[in-house]
Amino acid sequence: MRRADSFIRGATILAIGVLLALAVSNTNLSGQNHLPVVAPAFQAGVMPAQGEIEIPGPTRSTFIASWPGVKGALGYLLDVSTSDSFTNYIDGYHDLDVGDATARVVTGLNRGTTYYYRVRAYGATGPSDYSVVMRITTEATTGLNINPTFDSSITGNPNAAAIEAMINRAISFHESLFSDPITIQIRFRYSTTGPDGTPLAGAIAQSLFVVYQIPWSTYIGALRADARTGNDGVANASLPGTALSPNIKPRSAGGRAVGLDTPPAMFANGTVGQGGPYDGIVTLNSSAAYQFTRPPSASNLDAQHSTEHEVDEVIGLGSHLGSNGNDLHPQDLFSWSSPGHRNLTSSGPRYFSINGGVVNIVNFNQNPNGDFGDWLSTACPQAHPYVQNAFICAGQYSDIAETSPEGIDLDVVGYDLVNASTPTPTPTPSATACSLLQERLDRLQRRKRRLQRLHRSNPRLKRRIQRLRLQLQHCH
Q1: pLDDT in tens, 257-316
Q2: Which of 218, 238, 322, 455 is most buried, judging by how many CB atoms fall within 10 Å of its CB?
Q3: Distance, CA of 222 to CA of 70 (rounded, Å)
Q4: Taking residues 447-455, what's their average pLDDT?
């Protein structure tokens, strides 16, 4: 995804084998060190408004603690507990100094659990009394869990509350769509450099992720066995009968989505090794004209759109094109140039299809200045500003959805859409049926050659040949 000379590019980190690679108050805390005990702005269980910060609802593992600001406060101390009397504290959330922010995303939580939080403002002479206690319950449904970690480049930023809220909104889209009972660990940053200190240059965002090298038959077997939706049934029918590369390289999160043993392996500096706690790292370039609320103005970029884009890449989307080696990535299994004809190169037309190329869902980007795993982008303003477009336009945005190209793509590479239909198993043809199909195909191909010699064409004949070729894929 790119704006002017800015682009978003996923950097592939390879792991081979096991592993390689807060009471409205006029109190001036500088002279009077307390908050009023009764704080009518707090209503039990109700999140106070935060001006321009859009407070999303809780996810399965996070919620946003928020409170009205206190005049003269230098900062706030946050407590979070599963007890309304605070007899215990969530790890890392006892007198947590959040600076002068008036909201904080609380992460690493359990689904369907009620939590309580309170804050104390502090000034030059120390902390005030506690605010009233707020109560909130995390999302109870089972399904995909994306656990965010916020780098100091976010928590120390004056706009930390808005940035964290935006990221939580992005995460909530993915969690609401997919039912996979796995937890994905992503570190989020807001900086002009990558995790290792390298300048982002023209990039407006960057994703780093762990990739595993899995033998072809092992991955294809796991993908077929993971079929849960109607999309999966259609897509599996188009999988090749013979290997297109020795191995498949899924993301660590994508591997777990199909039941493989591909744990997180990335450290905070972007290196990969055993014990690395993250599946990937997403960095938004802090020098870009990002807006953290919607709708974005005509001159600003939508930060949530870019965040969803990068999350998609960390958890599964992307192509082998532009990376090292010839082993395919899962998305490459559904790359076509025409019905029945795959295109795994950066030349000529290439599009995403789940039924053997018959239906073109979206064209892939073939511009080397963008990711080859992204969608082909038109000039601004775009008629379809999809999340995964290779080039981004100011003032436009969209979200991943069940019927968006991104939602369908993640579904067929191993994730399970919540509301998609159940697949109909594709029967394996018998040897006799396969022979008959081959004989029929041979006859039609001979007829096609005769017509070609007469400089004639028959579109209906071509479609019949393409259907037979797809059917014969199940015979190998």
Answers
A1: 999 999 999 999 999 999 999 999 999 999 999 999 999 999 999 999 999 999 999 999
A2: 238
A3: 55
A4: 81
Instruction: List all residues 6 or more positions away from 379 whose beta carbon is below 8 Å from its beta carbon.
Output: none
* Tokens found for residue 365: 């980007």
User: Tell me, what DSSP letter sits at residue 34?
Assistant: -
Structure tokens at 281: 């790292």
Q: Are 278 and 183 in contact (CB under 8 A)?
A: no
Q: Which two tokens stand for residue 15?
A: 């792991």
3-state SS class at 335: strand
Which residue type is seen at 78? L
431 φ, ψ (degrees, to nearest 5): -60, -40
Q: Where are the domains of the chain?
A: 2-16+148-412, 431-475
The span from the CA of 147 to the CA of 60, in Å, is: 9
Token couple for 305: 């759109």
Cα torsion angle, 64, 68, 74, 80, sign: negative
Strand partners, 65: 104
Instruction: Identify the CA nearest to 155 among candidates 223, 86, 75.
Output: 75
Burial of 434 by CB count in 10 Å (0-12 exposed, 13-18 middle, 19+ buried)?
middle
How far apart, in whole angstroms, are the C-alpha atoms of residue 448 and residue 466? 12
Residue with token string 């500088």: 30
Residue 312: closest CA among 180, 142, 171, 214: 171
Which residues, listed in sequence order, are joined to residue 214 by a DSSP beta bridge? 248
